[in-house]
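Section handout 9: paired folding examples.
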Amino acid sequence: MEFDFAAEQPKFLMLMYGLIAFVAVVGGLLLLLDVVPAWFARRREERLVAAVASGAPLPRRRKPREGAIALFFLLPTLLFLTVGLVVPAIRTTLLSFMDKNSSNWVGLDNYAWMFSEDSIVRVLINSLIWVLLVPLVATGFGLIYAVLVDKARFESVAKSLIFLPMAISFVGAAIIWKFVYAYRGDGDQIGLLNQIVVSLGGEPKQWLLESPLNTLLLIVIMIWIQAGFAMVVLSAAIKAIPADIVEAARLDGVSPWQMFWQITMPSIRPAVIVVVVTLSIATLKVFDIVRTATNGNYDTSVIANEMYNQAFRYGEPGQGSALAVFLFVLVIPIVIYQIRNLRQQREG
């Protein structure tokens, strides 16, 4: 199959226009942030030189209006948030109360469909399983690994090995693990998992076709990726524990187990909460892994994947928007909890 550059030219032009627009906007903001403060500093310096030359009293330094300066720096962010988040969120919410043609109001019918359709209830259950297992298991593995390799001889190498999956995209990780779960009916198995099963005398299986096992196997991919993030954050928190507290505990003769539960865990509790909350939000939005590994088939779909299917594949923007709104509602309590937790830490 030959690549026809002429036929694909409009796509390349759109890509080029997008890159030019991105460079122009970001470059303009950076230039503005560099030029404006320098211009004010130069003007003040000129006034000071003029006052010294004329023998006049030096001009008093006026206190900057902090509100105006803060607004100046926040305006680009507020603009992008409004265009990229607030407006789409309002539009999506409105679409969730409309029919598939986005022309007639149907009230809560799309939300009633979401909880009455068996396939969608299966999707919600899958998402619940994901959000229960991934944050807890990934944080647990990251914490155990951080404690075990802390101050070890090859600590940096050991941490690099578990952090490496973080450098891989979700799509890349899903493709790698599809090879691990690969099944071949006849001949030698190319999938690592099936090859291990065969070497132990078992029969190879099509792992990603068996529900609910396939959902758990997809969850393993997410844990494999996110355990490195949990390990890095928790390892930094462990190293931040004051040395005098650790030394005092050792002088008191506490065992390693007591050291972990009575000293380490209370000290890193805020970091553990941050990791669990961050992973919970990331898990609720998971899409790439499911889309790449199974395309949501065989009872493996999750909310984000089904939202895409309904809105863009099945021509049901109302139902897809309802799923998007429901996903947004699920994230809100987690964000509120994290904000309250951060405020309590700051006040404490």
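Moving on to protein 2 of 2.
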Amino acid sequence: MRKLCPNLDREDGLDTVLEVPIPDEMLASIGSTASARWKNMQAWLKTQAFDKATEGPSPVGKNTEIQLLLNVVGVPLIPCPVPFDQAFSKSIRDCSVQASTAKYILQQYIAATGGQAALQNLRSMYAIGTVKMSASEFHMGNQSVATNGRGEIGGFVLWQKTPDLFYFELIMAGCKMSAGSDGKVAWKQSAEQSHVLRGPPRPLRRSLQGLDPRATANLFSEAVCIGEKIIDGEECFILKREAKPATLKARSASNFDIIHHTMWGYFSQRTGLIIKLEDNHLLRMKAGRRGESIFWETSMESVIKDYRYIDGINIAHGGETAVTLFRYGEGSINHKRKLEEAWTIEEADFNLWGLTMDCFLPPSDLKKDD
């Protein structure tokens, strides 16, 4: 990962610290010499500046494909808000067998990731990582689909503070995407557009992929245990968490409504750690004068691995995500598409000094709209 950009204007000038570190593979693919690579990198970073977000329409072609990957795979949010430290305060008693079993499983997860005292002491964190994404074409019908094998390399940085504050930035193949929350609203932003996400603030899904055990425990504090399953040779308990109707209604609008959004966590019976995360999201859109419905179903599966300790906290340092987009309905021919991502955490740390509210302010154009 490259964190510094040389000063191309002055040989004796100081290097520039990159806001998002650049993977070596990504840098090597954009020029034949070191100087040409950095000049090309500077050129497209300027074209992707977020202060140009409202200057014109979105480009077509490859950039549109990359933006789809970044938006769907790179910066998805989880279905619902996460209750603050509910996992550490709720009693195992006075609830159903499925709910009390889930709480017992979460107690094992909390112990496996560092213990209650260590997790409750987590006030902030940051992580730097690399991603590789690829996609298939849209296929008609219900047949299985596979990605084309070609992939794009990118880098990301995540800043997070308890509760409900995060800022995430991802760059790939000349495109940039960010997402954030100031505790009141969550948003997504690219060089073409920025918008507030409907409904209450929700954490970034990437944090729940083994990177933030405190948020993961709180997310599944309202889950129920629905059974067991073997995942990659590991016997796992399955915890299920559904978004509440009020949350789904807040995220819906006049021209579409979210029918359901459900998450499943697979917790190893041997280690207590979460090793797989799934969620399924079904959206209904109104189309045509006759009110025909088009459905978009998004299914995501993340395999989580390479757990390592950092300051007494056990977090995952890698994994893969597969996303299936399926469109069907009265006003649409059935189409299916698959997106894939592999990620690696290169660096992470907790309880940072100087991480203030200014680090999580919404984009200026969103503030004007509000």
